[in-house]
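Standup notes
- DV: blocked on the single-chain target, sequence here:
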Amino acid sequence: MSRLTISLDDDLQQALREAAARSGTSMNAIIADALRLWGVNPSREVEAILTQARGRTAGPDDAALLELAVTEARSHRRGRSKS
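- DV (later): unblocked, structure below
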């Protein structure tokens, strides 16, 4: 696992610390979930979503495939949400 240093305003860092304590999880897990909700996913996850979308499309229409991939990605992100 790689390490990353970020700078946050004191108020935001405190809010993050409190959210982690309330949810019984780590600040790292909250940040990772937030990144995924923003669509920041490892390429293997994106490829899996595209493969799933390709399996649902009737033909080689790139526009339809792209629309389906976007729909699948949004659905995938909602599924990861813990709200």
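- Follow-up: The chain has a mean pLDDT of 80.
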